[in-house]
Amino acid sequence: MHRPAPATAPRTRLARVLACAAVPVMLVAVGCSDSDDGKKQDSGASSSAATPSGKQSSSPSVAPAKYAKLPDPCKALAQKTIEDLVPKAKSKSGTAGKSTDVSSQGTCSWNGLDDKGVKGSQYRWLDVSFKRYGSDAAIGSGDQRAGKEYARLVTASKAADGAKNVKATAVSGIGDEATAISYDLNKTDEDFKYAVIVARTANAVVLLDYNGAGYQGADAPDAGDLMKDAQSAAKEAVASVATANGAKQ
């Protein structure tokens, strides 16, 4: 049950809770990979090494990775998408996360408060993360490695700390495979609705987190609408991976 804030609540309290709300509850920005992943070859060509007898022995070959780079996370979504999903965004250009290898991983987030006066306010947070895996004969193809990360993120998203009413559903039309996860979470004394999309396209993984809450007496956002918008944005983010690698959309 959403608990509206008193209409006379000081604006200073709202500022404090928004500072807390701006931190995503699930910082699963697509990480957890080999630290030197960006340096590993994507070709998957078989390697050979000289044996003591002078003969050459070949390692098993793996399929080459489809994608060699990632899009700029802060430009992966159209400006209209940002305006629609995050009204009154503090920065329409987004806030990029730190990455030591932008060709292998990156993230960007947007947040904003749409103040509707006596009708209350609507807060929205949007975060999109990308992770790319290269092919390596010793540990598997890029697609296989991305598949493992995809499964890990789905499990982690469903187990978000404090999440209630968790639902996970496989969705089609977003990359090679995708799962939509929704849940409720109470933080900063407000009821937040979450819509998370985890998707894999070949050797790249996309994680999109879209959530929001109503402040100062406003209703919580509709979970169905939130998920619909999240899926649309995730499809756009997945398409940006192909575009970054020269594919025409």
UniProtKB/TrEMBL annotation:
Domain of life, per lineage: Bacteria
Listed name of the protein: DUF3558 family protein
Species of the source: Streptomyces crystallinus
First and last residue of the signal peptide: 1-21
Region (Disordered), start-end ranges: 32-67, 87-106
Biased composition (Polar residues): 51-61
Keywords from the UniProt entry: Signal
Pfam families, per the entry: DUF3558
